[in-house]
TrEMBL record:
NCBIfam families, A to Z: oligo_HPY
Keywords: ATP-binding, Nucleotide-binding, Transport
A Pfam match: ABC_tran
UniProt xrefs under Gene3D superfamilies: P-loop containing nucleotide triphosphate hydrolases
Family, per entry: Belongs to the ABC transporter superfamily.
UniProt record, GO biological process: peptide transport; transmembrane transport
Protein name in the entry: Peptide ABC transporter ATP-binding protein
ABC transporter domain residues: 10-249
Domain of life: Bacteria
Length: 330
């Protein structure tokens, strides 16, 4: 599979206040997204996944590393970023906050066309985007306002606004988190249909591994600024190798794993611990099961995982000391 978007050695730091250490929000990430591939970026709040997504969109300039799209490095000049954002679109979590309450559905979807100086038939383009997003007949929605729509319809309008420019990749940040459970499946099915019909690629940012299971081809699990496990979704979610991934999976209702309650809060990204960055909260290390590699966990840095499709894990225990059994498939 050819890579549509790639990040290599990506780092994003934010200066601390009053001489405090800089916060390492993204601390060495390699990530590839193939043409027509859906990748789920999963992790707790504060792990850096939204900062990583914003960096891939060109909204944040990386401190180090590079982003390439279709083989070309991303340039951080206004004209280059404007052209790039026509090809890579953002779908935000809260459709109510994404839509101007004073704009009709037509104007909300047409906004991108007007920003980019679209020279074709605007009405036809807006109608086509609304229809692809599942709002049919589209003309029935042109003059409606956001408050006249259901939550699912508003999210479809946001998706239509992203589709109207014909992007090759969308970045969806918690795309169903604010929706009722009955509507979430419809929006996920829509994203899958758009991938199949348009060849659209997607990076779906979420805290929910259950969502990743339903929509993604590949999953990347992020903790404290770095990807700690990645691979095909079936591989990672049926046989999780990293204790953090196992903890995230254990709280899902359908999980075969015993529930794991992680101790404490994630460390401050300005004071990332040495060794494995998860070791202070690791349930395997705390139980003594990882005693053979305990010193390495606390003191030996783990390498940055590659961004490709091969299953990989950044964990001393999984690399050598873990027993051979695997988790039962769901």
């Amino acid at each position: 599979m050819s890579h549509l978007l790639s990040a290599a050695g990506l780092r994003v730091t934010f200066p601390g206040r009053r001489g405090a250490p800089a916060a390492r929000a993204v601390d060495g990430v390699d990530l590839d997204i193939g043409a027509g591939e859906i990748v789920a970026l999963v992790g707790e709040s504060g792990c850096g996944k939204t900062t990583l997504a914003r960096t891939l969109l060109g909204l944040v300039t990386p401190t180090a590393g590079r982003v390439t799209f279709a083989g070309e490095p991303l340039a951080y000049k206004a004209a280059a970023l404007k052209a790039y954002r026509k090809r890579v679109q953002l779908v935000l979590q809260d459709p109510s906050g994404s839509l101007n309450p004073r704009h009709t559905v037509y104007d909300a979807v047409a906004e991108g066309l007007r920003i980019h100086g679209y020279a074709g038939d605007e009405r036809e383009a807006v109608a086509g985007a609304l229809a692809r997003a599942g709002l049919r007949p589209p003309e029935r929605f042109f003059l409606r306002y956001p408050h006249e729509l259901s939550g699912g319809q508003r999210q479809r309008v946001v998706i239509a606004g992203a589709l109207v420019l014909g992007p090759e990749l969308i970045v969806a940040d918690e795309p169903v988190a604010s929706l009722d459970a009955s509507v979430r499946g419809e929006i996920l099915a829509l994203l899958l249909r758009l991938r199949d019909e348009l060849g659209l690629s997607a990076l779906v940012v979420t805290h929910d591994l259950g969502l990743a299971w339903n929509i993604a081809d590949r999953v990347a699990v992020m903790y404290l600024g770095r990807i700690v496990e990645t691979g095909p979704v079936e591989t990672v979610l049926t046989s999780p190798q990293h204790p953090y991934t196992r903890a995230l999976l254990s709280v899902l209702p359908e999980s075969p794993l015993p529930p794991v309650v992680l101790r404490g809060e994630p460390p401050d990204p300005a004071r990332i611990p040495g060794g494995c960055r998860f070791h202070a909260r690791c349930q395997v290390l705390a139980s003594g099961e990882a005693a053979a590699v305990a010193d390495r966990c606390r003191g030996e840095e783990l390498p940055v995982l590659g961004g490709g499709a091969v299953a990989q894990v950044a964990c001393h225990w999984s690399a050598g000391a873990r027993p051979a059994e695997v988790t039962a498939a769901w």
